[in-house]
Write a structure and sequence with these properties.
Helix content: 55-70%
CATH topology of the largest domain: Hypothetical protein af1432
Shape: elongated
Distance between the termini: 77 Å
Radius of gyration: 41 Å
Structural class: mainly alpha
Strand content: under 5%
Number of helices: 25
Largest sheet: 4 strands, mixed
CATH architecture of the largest domain: Orthogonal Bundle
């Protein structure tokens, strides 16, 4: 991928994230974004009415008054026929409905449009008419549906939704005052008035511009963090897509909850801890904390109570960052989930007690939401596997599984190429110690080292460390053929790695462990055999690429140093140190580490580690005396 296309994709990803966040933002037209509950103190500044607004009755009050109004009407019926004795008969269903609804009287119209009011108890059903008069009587009055519908509608509309008026400038509540039932009704009426207040198109545009600016600023701060602190991640399209997806999932989930539910406590169930966990597992804890906090700040713009939300969530973000810097066991995730649940519970309890001064306001369902959150966090183990497959990432758990020397592939490696296998073990140990010294990823280096020469499994007899009989097939080839045979173990390794579905990051160790260096033995032999000819170095060089990370650079040094150490005639501190310096200096002069972030101090530290370890490996042993009889 070209650099221009990469930059375009990165910019497009962050722009798309900003657009999605603004589109899903749930609170454009409500200027009364306060959170309050009956019995709790008002946590904001003084509130006064900016305009006249009515005080709305509660839904329960309105419904009760509407029921009473409906019961006060007189249902209308129409007489269809005149029965003997002037009786009025209605169906059993209509009679039971009148009794159930509590009506005492009905209005009956005759065919001459004369209405009369009758007592419900004086009306008959077909059964009661027969019992009284001994005759079968069909119902002769039926409901006047149209008139009754109009009466019901008028009764409902006669009930006022309001019962008072707050005038502009009137004081409503000030910080620290307890929200009473009456004050609560005034505040909800004010919120409703703001929501129903007509907002002009120009005002709506300004509101959206304001939120857009805030969201873009926060996302821009995260991008700035990457550019300054993690420039290697800033230029990675894969990392950009990962960060944008993580933010988008959490923001979308939260905004949809706030948009379609009036209960913002449901946010306690959203596993925001996934942000810190997944980012720590795949990248680093500092980036995880930055991503976590920026996402929470964006979500807090839409929450009714931003302070409790931010306080509890940022405390949890810190707990996640320090409890799960690296995940090498499944138990680590369970431990973090438990700590997060305890943190949520403690913070929620403490904030509620501090705000109300009473434990009676603690809600059991909040603790149930916290338990659900803990379960979701444990489920992150499966999400880690999914992200590894989608983004080609690798976690520490996967690296540990790959570094298991008892795996089927490692067993085959040890049996078919025992010399190379022992070489990889030594290289792995050297590289691991060097990585620890310069604070690189030791586990990644260790795993990559185990697989760097896996391509030699294709033809192990071509490499001297596996030749038991002393027969070397390379000596029967031309120097160019022999060099190409040796070089081929890199491409063979990549082919085998693809068949074994090894992660891309492990394949990078296979591809770059020789960089673009010369197969010097056969190149020198060819040059010595043809001193009068110009030898094409390109035919004797590995295809690369060169190492681009500290870890791949360490492996390249360790591989060369360990292999060269086997050809020393004597193992002294001076000879080993000279060999280490010679091999690393040659690689530096060849430009093999030009694309890595290694510093001079890193290189010097690596030299010291290699020298110390090789001296320890090849230390002089005393001769055991024989037993004289």
């Amino acid at each position: 991928m070209s650099k221009t296309l990469r930059i375009i994709l990165i910019i497009a990803s962050y722009v798309a994230l900003t657009a999605l966040t603004v589109y899903l933002f749930p609170r454009y037209n409500n200027a009364f974004n306060y959170h309050f509950e009956i019995g709790k103190p008002w946590g904001y500044d003084l509130v006064t009415a900016e305009f006249d607004f009515p005080i709305y009755k509660t839904d329960a009050e309105v419904m009760q008054q509407q029921r009473e109004a409906i019961q006060n009407i007189t249902p209308c019926y129409t007489r269809t026929t005149e029965l003997p004795n002037g009786i009025y008969v209605l169906s059993l269903e209509d009679y039971e409905r009148l009794k159930a609804d509590g009506y005492k009287r009905v209005s009956v119209r005759t065919d001459r449009h004369v209405a009369s009011t009758l007592v419900v108890d004086e009306l008959h059903t077909p059964k009661s008419a027969y019992e009284c008069y001994g005759e079968q009587c069909e119902p002769n009055i039926i409901p006047d549906t149209a008139t009754n519908a109009m009466l019901y509608r008028n009764a409902i509309e006669s009930v006022s939704l309001t019962f008072g008026l707050v005038q502009a400038g009137e004081r409503i509540i000030d910080r620290g005052e307890i929200v009473t039932a009456e004050t609560y009704q005034v505040l909800t009426s004010l919120a409703r008035a703001y929501a129903e207040k007509n907002i002009t198109r120009q005002q709506s545009v300004y509101v959206q511009i304001g939120y857009l600016a805030l969201i873009a600023l926060l996302i821009g701060l995260f991008v700035l963090y990457l550019a300054i602190v993690r420039p290697n991640l800033f230029t990675q399209v894969r990392a950009t897509l990962f960060f944008c997806l993580m933010m988008a999932l959490n923001i979308a989930t939260s905004f949809l909850i706030l948009r379609f539910s009036s209960d913002d406590t449901l946010l306690y169930m959203v596993p925001f801890a996934w942000l810190g966990i997944l980012t720590s597992v795949f990248y680093d804890s500092r980036t995880a904390l930055a991503l976590h906090v920026i996402t929470l700040l964006i979500i807090s713009l839409a929450t009714p109570a931003p302070f409790p939300f931010l306080f509890s969530q940022i405390v949890v973000a810190i707990v996640v960052t320090y409890s799960l810097r690296k995940m090498t066991q499944r138990a680590h995730l369970a431990h973090t989930a438990l700590l997060v649940a305890l943190t949520y519970a403690v913070v929620y309890t403490a904030l509620t007690l501090a705000a109300t001064g009473s434990y009676t306001h603690l809600q059991l369902r909040i603790y149930m939401f916290i338990v659900a959150n803990m379960i979701f966090i444990i489920c992150a183990y499966g999400v880690i596997y999914l992200f590894e497959r989608v983004f080609g990432l690798v976690s520490d758990v996967t690296l540990i599984e790959l570094s298991n020397v008892n795996s089927e592939l490692m067993h085959r490696f040890a049996e078919e190429a025992p010399g190379t296998f022992q070489h990889t073990l030594q290289v792995s140990n050297l590289a691991t110690e060097a990585a620890k010294k310069i604070e690189a990823n030791a586990l990644l280096v260790r795993t990559g080292a185990l697989y760097h020469d896996i391509g030699k499994l294709m033809a192990p007899q071509n490499f001297t460390e596996n030749q038991q009989s002393g027969d070397n097939p390379l000596l029967r080839m031309t120097n160019l053929e022999a060099a190409q045979t040796v070089i081929r173990h890199v491409s063979d390794g990549l082919t085998l790695a693809a068949k074994q579905h090894l992660p891309q990051i492990i394949r990078s160790f296979i591809a770059s462990h020789h960089g673009t260096s010369l197969v010097r033995y056969f190149y020198n032999s060819e040059a010595n055999a043809h001193p009068d000819q110009t030898i094409d170095e390109g035919l004797f060089r590995y295809p690369g690429p060169k190492p681009t990370t500290k870890e791949t650079a360490i492996l390249m040094m360790a591989d060369a140093v360990e292999a060269r150490s086997r050809s020393l005639t004597e193992y002294t501190e001076q000879s080993i140190a000279a060999m280490v310096n010679q091999m690393i200096d040659a690689q530096i002069q060849d430009g093999q580490f030009a694309e890595t972030p290694l510093s001079f101090s890193d290189v010097e530290a690596i030299r010291e580690v290699f020298t110390e370890k090789l001296i320890a490996i090849h230390h002089h042993r005393i001769a055991y005396p024989t037993l004289n009889k």
